[in-house]
Amino acid sequence: MTDSRARLHRQIRDFIAAHADGSRDDAARDALLCALAEDQITHVAPYARFCAQRRVALPLASPDRIPALPTDAFRFARIARHAEAHDVRRFRSSGTTSDSRSLHALTELSLYDAAAEAAARVALFADVARMRLVLLVPSEHELPDSSLSYMLARFLGWFGTEGSGHVWPVGPEHVDALSAHLREAERTGEPVAVLGTSFALVHAIDALAETRFQLPRGSRVMQTGGFKGRSRTLTPEAMRALLVDALGVDHAHVVAEYGMTELSSQLYETTLRWPDAPRRLWWPSWVRVSVVDPETFLPVSDGTLGLVRIDDLANLDGVACIQTADLGVLDAYGLTLHGRASDAVARGCSIGAAELLGEVRG
Amino acid sequence: MSEATTALRALAGDVIDAGTALFEAGGERRARWLANAFAMLARPAGELGRDACKLLSASSGLSEPMVAWALETTLAPLTLDALRALEAAPVPPRAGAVRARPGQLCAVVLAGNVPIAAARAVGIPLLFGWPVLCKASSDDDALARLLEAALIEADPTLGAAFRVVRFAAEDDAQAQLLLERADVVSAYGSDATLQAIRARIAPTCTFVGHGHGLGAALVARASLTSRETAQAAARGLALDVAAYDQRGCLSPHVAWVERGGALTPEQFAGLLHEELALLSTSLPRGRLPLDAASAQLSWRGISAMRGSLLEGEGFAVSYEDDAALRVSPGYRNVQVLATDDLTALLPRLAPLGVHLKCLGLAGIEDPHRLASRLPARVAPRLCPVGRMQRPDVQAAQDGLAPWDGLLRWSDLT
Predict the structure, then answer these.
(1) Nearest-CA neighbor of A118 among A286, A260, A254, A277?
(2) Which residue in A has a C-alpha nearest to residue B292's C-alpha?
């Protein structure tokens, strides 16, 4: 490790530890973000070029002055401060071809783990040290480049009891395995957590058909990601209603998780931890969330729809400040997502990149 | 049957009934009628022309100066002489063959509101004697409605053979009604939209599909012999990019520029930036929807990361040396790529296929030779830069004659 990296690693690790209880120190976070970004501008070549075009002036006075790299950039370049030979893990987004998949390369996982554990402890497992976990995702051995599979595998160690495990794939042929977990929870009266992608949960519920469960009080569901064309699509409200009906969990105990390959940290809905507050996405103290105007890149006022930007201190080895294509609104309670900006832009007859297959090289 | 579908059925019947008068009017009267209607819309001093500018700007999001330019460049050339020539242009397959009477109805399905598409899409079938029932874009029917008003005003009898309807894309019942009595369906839209429409039509119905597309420019080193020649090419290309805010199927998203001229491709990118800056004042870009802004942010970010990004007020030029084509989100974001040899580049246009609608040329000495070397099924319109968005009324569309699908011939042998 270089000296600057070692120093930043220590500072970020200490910051996460100091605020693992959900406490906040936004001023300290922002100062650390600026220091991290300045270091990344120096050491991450594609980001350096990006910032040079944006005419970034150093030193950075505030995170709003740090250019956020679009998530698409991770498909077109290796965004890492270290050489490929030092990768200990490569997370890739889902996609049909290697050209269309983002790469997040990490040289070590301690910050990733610390961030993931602390945030989940606050938002998902604040009321219980351990519980049975049922993971509706491939194991990390089956899908080693999935950050979700990696994270949930860690959850087994941090939060899971004996009897926890994966149920994958999810379909009519495997419904018995899922049912066994859920019937056991009903029998023992011990709450269970079901965690998976939205499409996997839909497949699971559809496979259960008319079967219904009344899971013990305290049971919860964590759903993440979209349907990706792999199942029918439901609104968030319809999805929650489906899960409540099929599993008998409390409405407030259906919690959406927001993460992405390009980030190291996650956001969670608030209803499990803060049931009296409106349902919003919460983020841990080492993350900064803003909603920006896509032309000026400046934050919009609360209540205004814009593009979600995530600044993640745990993203030490790549770029901390990420510009997503997700639409959102911030208010006093947190973030509400409003879908993803579409590539099918309302043009006249001009074809969009998504429609046009292949590339032409000059 | 709902009220809406009952009304649509009746409307279709009325349009079909008006087809007799339309056919019997003959080509000359139809040409005169259409020319008068187009002139009404193109004239900013007239009531319809004034309304057209404001309404189309509000509905399309294009700036008023851009709409005024679009109306003038699209509609003003559709003169009586031009329309007469178009009506007389089709050559029979054999001497003596007789042009058959048009069928009972042409259904036109429009997508989006780029004036070029609507005027030709509707005007050409009417010129050849087809009564037209036009489904406007579910988001915006402003131009179609203005055309309807102008055509009625120009000649109420012939105007009865053209009507506009608008309904949601998901309305299967109305979609089926629109198509079931049509002998020709002329549809504009994405591949998925065209496929869905084609699946609904009767086997005896002719389908003419105009899919989404894009343009590209080829700038040869012969146009880069001096700053003046290069600036002229850049000026023309800038207009092609700026027109319709780069939202049309002819709009260039990329310019391949040959190395070896007095100016480098990167210098050409700089000139293009200068010319787009001038147009940002005289023909300002319209409003930028949030989805487009997001795509623009991402596209520009990758440009900045990989090459040079030259931004301006409402436009950007990306120079990425010889990187791969990245289709921009439009809205005046264009890529300049370098190549050693434009001729050697041609086979690599193959993946664009039928979606490549127009090639703007600068410094190409023998466009015919270039056209003959295009890959299979790549049949764009070729024209000088500066003319990409101003196709001649007789210009081929998607490699086909403008009357393709509309005419049949009785062969007397």
Answers:
(1) A286
(2) A345
- CA dist list (Å): B284 to B43, B45, B214, B236, B364: 21, 21, 21, 16, 30
pLDDT digits (tens, 9 = 90+) for B228-244: 999 999 999 999 999 99
Distance between CA atoms of B128 and A220, rounded to whole angstroms?
A: 67
Q: Which two tokens stand for residue A211?
A: 């079967």
**What one-character DSSP code corresponds to residue A235?**
-
Q: Where are the beta strands (DSSP E) in chain A?
A: 69-70, 89-92, 103-106, 132-136, 165-166, 192-197, 220-224, 254-258, 267-269, 281-282, 287-292, 306-312, 321-331, 334-340
Per the document, the length of chain B is 413
Mean pLDDT of chain A: 92
- Dihedral pair phi/psi, residue B405, rounded to 5°: 90, -20
Range A292-313 average pLDDT: 96
Which residue among A73, A327, A351 places its CB closest to the CB of B302?
A73
**What 8-state DSSP symbol labels residue B102?**
P
pLDDT number for residue B360:
98
CB distance A174 to A204 below 8 Å = no
Chain B's closest residue to A307, CA to CA, is B294
Q: Does residue B273 carry a pLDDT above 90?
A: yes
Please provide the average confidence, as pLDDT, over all residues in chain B: 93
- List, for residues B179-215, the tens digit of each pLDDT value: 999 999 999 988 888 999 999 999 999 999 988 899 9
Question: A87 versus B412: which is more confidently predicted?
Answer: A87
Q: Chain A residues within 8 A (CB-CB) of chain B?
A: 46-47, 49-50, 53-54, 69-73, 76-77, 293-295, 297, 305-307, 323, 325, 327, 341-353, 355-362
Judge: B291–A353 Cβ closer than 8 Å, yes or no: no
Residues of A with Cβ-Cβ distance to B349 under 8 angstroms: 360
The dihedral over CA atoms of A236, A240, A245, A249, expressed in degrees to the nearest 10, equals 180
Do the Cβ atoms of B256 and B320 come closer than 8 Å?
no
Q: Which two tokens stand for residue B74?
A: 């699209």
Residues of chain B with C-beta less than 8 angstroms from the C-beta of A342: 291
Complex ipTM: 0.91
CB contacts of B112 in chain A (<8 Å) are 346-349
Residues of chain A contacting residue B110, judged by C-beta atoms under 8 Å apart? none
Assess contact for B141 and B169: CB atoms under 8 A: no
Return all residues near A40 (Cβ < 8 A) that are at least 6 apart.
Answer: A47, A81, A318, A319, A320
**DSSP secondary structure string for all residues of A90-141:** EEE---SSGGG--EEEES--HHHHHHHHHHHHHHTSTT-S-BEEEEES--TT
- How many Å apart are CA A295 and CA A331, to the nearest integer? 21
Helix and strand numbers, DSSP H then E, in chain B: 14, 14
pTM for this structure? Answer: 0.92
Tell me if B292 and A346 make a contact (CB, 8 A cut-off).
yes
Q: Which of A352, A359, A362 sits opposite B339 (nearest CB)?
A: A362
The single residue listed with the structure tokens 């700053």 is: B227
In angstroms, rounded to a whole number, what is the distance separating the alpha carbons of residues B71 and B38?
9
Distance CA A39, CA A8 (A): 9
Residues of B in contact with A348 (CB under 8 A): 111-114, 117, 244, 247-249
Q: Which residue has the tokens 């032409």?
A: A360
How far is it, in rounded angstroms, from Cα B15 to Cα B155? 14
Which residues of chain B neighbour A341 with C-beta distances below 8 Å? 290-291, 293-295
Q: Which chain A residue has the Cα nearest residue B114?
A: A348
User: For B48-58, what is the mean pLDDT?
Assistant: 86
3-state SS, residue B223: helix
Say whether B324 and A359 touch across the interface (CB within 8 A): yes
Query: Tens digit of pLDDT for each residue in A319-362?
Result: 999 999 999 999 999 999 998 887 644 455 666 666 664 334 44
